[in-house]
Each structure stands twice: as C-alpha cells, then as structure tokens.
Automatic annotation (TrEMBL):
<keyword id="KW-0067">ATP-binding</keyword>
<dbReference type="GO" id="GO:0005737">
    <property type="term" value="C:cytoplasm"/>
</dbReference>
<keyword id="KW-0547">Nucleotide-binding</keyword>
<feature type="domain" description="Mur ligase central">
    <location>
        <begin position="119"/>
        <end position="296"/>
    </location>
</feature>
<dbReference type="InterPro" id="IPR004101">
    <property type="entry name" value="Mur_ligase_C"/>
</dbReference>
<dbReference type="GO" id="GO:0009252">
    <property type="term" value="P:peptidoglycan biosynthetic process"/>
</dbReference>
<dbReference type="InterPro" id="IPR005762">
    <property type="entry name" value="MurD"/>
</dbReference>
<keyword id="KW-0132">Cell division</keyword>
<feature type="domain" description="Mur ligase C-terminal">
    <location>
        <begin position="319"/>
        <end position="432"/>
    </location>
</feature>
<dbReference type="GO" id="GO:0051301">
    <property type="term" value="P:cell division"/>
</dbReference>
<comment type="function">
    <text>Cell wall formation. Catalyzes the addition of glutamate to the nucleotide precursor UDP-N-acetylmuramoyl-L-alanine (UMA).</text>
</comment>
<dbReference type="InterPro" id="IPR013221">
    <property type="entry name" value="Mur_ligase_cen"/>
</dbReference>
<dbReference type="Pfam" id="PF08245">
    <property type="entry name" value="Mur_ligase_M"/>
</dbReference>
<comment type="similarity">
    <text>Belongs to the MurCDEF family.</text>
</comment>
<dbReference type="GO" id="GO:0005524">
    <property type="term" value="F:ATP binding"/>
</dbReference>
<keyword id="KW-0436">Ligase</keyword>
<dbReference type="GO" id="GO:0071555">
    <property type="term" value="P:cell wall organization"/>
</dbReference>
Length: 466
C-alpha cells in the first residue's frame, strides 16, 4: 500500500467504495487523513464501515471542512451531468481528484525520480502496460504494475528512487489527475469512445492529451488524426515527442514494416525488433503496442538485447488473442475480449485460415463491417442470441453452422480443422457481449480454454495458465 500522507490531518470526502475506492480510502487513512466515505450502494458503505473507515451520507456533510473530494473514476465528473457530490464540492470550492492524482502527489513528495510510465489510448492500453512491465522485469527492475489494468494504484509498493511504475490510465482517471507528471507518457490512439462521459470527441481527446502534455517524454501513436494533431502541437511547444506507427516506417520514431519494428530515435541509434515469431504480439494492433514499449524502454535506458528478450518472452494477456493450445497444425486462440466487430477485426486480420467461433449478445451493426475478412474463414460456428443474424450476414458464401453453445462449437471446429489437415486456427473472437450465456467475457474465455483443454491431443501453450 502507498500511504497517502499529502492529506495527513486533513478532512477528506470520498465517494465510491468499489475496489479502487475502498483501496483509496485505506491509503488515505493509513496516511493520516480524516476520511468520510460514502457510496450509493449500502453494502459497500457497510463493508467500509466494518473496516473502521468513517462513513456518512455526504449530502448532509459540512463541506467547508473538506480539503478534497476523492472521486472514484466510474462516477460522472462532467457528463451526462456531474454527480451530486461533484456539485457540492464545486459549490464549496473543494478540489475533485482521484487515486492517480493521489499517487502522483505521493511520488512527487517521496521519490520524484522514481520512473513512472503512464499509458492511455482508446485501444491497446492493457497489453502495452503489461508488455512494458514484463520487459522491465526481464531487465531486473523493481517494477510495479497497476491502474486501470485491474490493480488499484494505491495498493502498489510505496515510491522509492529505483522503483519503476507502469500505470494504465483511463480517460476517467486522467480527468481526475490534474498534476500527473509521468517520466514517459504514452498515447496510443484515439477514436470515439466514452462520449457519454466526456460530451464530445474534442473533450475526450483533450483529456487524453493531458497525460502526454505533462510528461518528461511523450510517446504518441500517429496513425489516427487526433493523435497526430496532439503530437504536432506538443512539438511546436518544444516538448520531447517520439512518434510510433503500426502502419509505416518513420524517419524519427518507431515504425512497423509488416514484420519488424524499426527504431530510428535520434540519440539512440537504429535498431530492428522482429515480431514474426512472437504469437502474443501477432497483428498490426499489437505492433503498435510493441512500438510503444520499444520507444518507452529505450527512453528509460533499457538495452536493445533486453528489450528483444522481453518482447520474445511476453506471454500476452488472457482473453486477448491468447494462444491456449495446439493440436498438430491447429492453433487454438482465445480472443473473448473482442465484444464487438471492431474488436474482432484485428484477430481476423492476423490469421489466414480460420475456424471462427462467434456470437453471443449482439451489438449494433452486427458483423457486417467484417466482410473484408470473410475470405479467411474456413467455417463459422455461431453461438448465442446473435447466431441467426450472423448466419444471415454470412449468407451462402461462407460455410457455417449454428452450434448454439460454446462447448459444441469448440468440439466441431476442432474436428473440422483437424480433418482439413492444414495450418489453421480455431478462433474464439465473438464480436458480441457475453451476457446471454456467460457472466462476462472472462468467464467465456475461461470456458473456451477449458473446452480446448478437454480435447484429445491438445498441447497447452505457455498462455493457458494466466
């Protein structure tokens, strides 16, 4: 835990007592703050109270005594309208901040030189965060991994001069972190997302830009127009910017030629990092994640041989193009995190001969946008509520069956792929939410992994135990 001493002796209001909110309350109390916590869920309030954290309905609190409102990132700050605690805080001129801001203040106070890599973007944040942390561990660094990836940042070990922090930051968290100052700030990409919480694409982009604007060194993906504008603006202001691309070789930065990352960063020399044999980094979207890792690790002083070793040994993340088994020439890949068509596209683009398991609770638009990838499909195995609609989209051109359930789809896809006697992949990339048959995409991915493991002659890959 990181005790938050910056509010020692001060009264602090805290709203939101989920996982990160409760961790934040503990860290504030450990640092000597006088916390009054609340949540709209009575069970969460009771849980905090059972731990000795003071709780009270903040509607009737004396807001003149609070030094800050610490807000959980899932609670609306601006759109569709501010939460009532935000209105009360602003009425009494109380700053509204979040756990990333508290971490930033503690790092600045205790170990301002502690390397801090912060990662944001619409897509790829978690993989990039995990990859950088993995490479730093390979380099023998004391590495702390947290943030939006699922580990509350204030549960990490306290700041120390040689302790490296790798923190995934959502737009919600950045919006609550006005003084975030990473050593390396990474902005991967930007596309319309969370506009219900930020109002407009312009607001969303401006919030994401804060992370790199305050960084000592900015690493920015330039394959999307909003990010190119941010990179150009920062450079015109004299900031240090390293560009990355999954689509082009860059004269200055880290680009991708379809097989290898090419680094051309002034002051660091040229280098090439081959990705062709790294299954966990398959696909251009993962090339962008790896380019961000190469750029940031270079800026942190990690040598090229160690970077290459880290890339080659990265196991990947569960449910994100996760290789879970192999039977002869057939590879089994769990991409359960692909809960819409756009998310499924990178996996379909990454393989040439696919026995595709798709379906679940359908999203708007279905799979029509995936038609360019249909020639790669040997056959589709459709499950869940979306099966009839997906079958209609596939039409007569693509062989398919309505399997109904995941276990049947895995059994039939594996048998068909094996009988074909060719290099192929059985791919779960559902392009749907899971809620018609599974509690969440993780449970769906675990069920796929278990069904594959139960097949005869399947050898588990290194990713199957994550």
């Amino acid at each position: 835990m990181i005790p938050v001493r910056s509010f020692a002796g001060a009264s602090v209001a805290l709203f939101g007592l989920g996982g990160s909110g409760l961790a934040t309350a503990r860290a504030l109390v450990a640092g000597g703050a006088k916390v009054t916590a609340y949540d709209d869920n009575p069970a969460s309030v009771d849980k905090a109270g059972a731990e000795g954290i003071a709780t009270a309905d903040l509607r009737s609190a004396d807001w003149t005594r609070y030094a800050a409102l610490v807000l959980s990132p899932g609670v609306p700050l601006t759109h569709p309208k501010p939460h009532w605690t935000v209105d009360l805080a602003r009425l009494h001129q109380v700053p509204v901040i979040g756990d990333i801001e508290l971490f930033s203040r503690e790092r600045r106070a205790e170990a301002p030189g502690a390397p801090f890599v912060a990662i944001t973007g619409t897509n790829g944040k978690s993989t990039t965060t995990a990859l950088i942390a993995h490479c730093l561990k390979v380099a023998g660094k004391d590495t702390q991994l947290g943030g939006n990836i699922g580990v509350a940042v204030l549960t990490l070990d306290p700041p120390a001069p040689e302790r490296h922090y790798v923190v995934e930051c959502s737009s919600y968290q950045i919006d609550l972190a006005p003084t975030i100052e990473p050593t390396v700030g990474i902005l991967l990409n930007l596309s319309p997302d969370h506009l219900d919480r930020h109002g407009t694409m312009g607001n969303y982009a401006a919030i994401k830009a804060r992370l790199v604007a305050n960084a000592q060194a900015a690493v920015i993906g330039v394959d999307t127009a909003p990010c190119r504008e941010i990179a150009n603006g920062l450079e015109s202001d004299g900031a240090a910017v390293t560009r990355i691309s999954q689509a082009d070789i860059l004269d200055r930065g880290v680009g991708f030629d379809g097989k290898s990352l090419q680094r051309r960063m002034p002051g660091y020399g040229e280098a090439s990092f081959d990705l062709t044999a790294i299954g966990s980094l398959r696909g251009r979207h993962n090339a962008q994640n790896a380019a961000a890792a190469v750029a940031s690790l270079t800026l942190l002083g990690v040598d090229d041989a160690t970077i290459a070793r880290g890339l080659a040994t990265f196991p990947g993340l569960a449910h994100r193009m996760e290789e879970v088994g192999r039977a002869g020439r057939v590879l089994f890949v769990n991409d359960s995190k692909a809960t819409n068509a756009d998310a499924a596209a990178p996996a379909l683009a990454a393989f040439q001969r696919i026995y595709w398991i798709a379906g679940g609770l359908p999203k708007e638009g279905g799979i029509a946008s995936l038609r360019p990838f249909f020639p790669r499909l040997a056959k589709a195995y459709l499950i869940g509520e979306a099966a009839p609609a997906f079958a209609a989209t596939l039409g007569e051109r693509i062989p398919y069956e309505i399997s109904g359930t995941l276990d049947i789809a895995v059994e039939h896809a594996a048998a068909d792929a094996k009988a074909a006697g060719e290099d192929a992949v059985v791919l779960l990339s559902p392009a749907c939410a899971s809620f018609d048959q599974f509690r969440n995409f993780e449970v769906r991915g675990d069920a796929f992994r278990a069904a594959v493991a139960a097949l005869p002659d399947v050898e588990a890959t290194r990713g199957d135990s994550r």
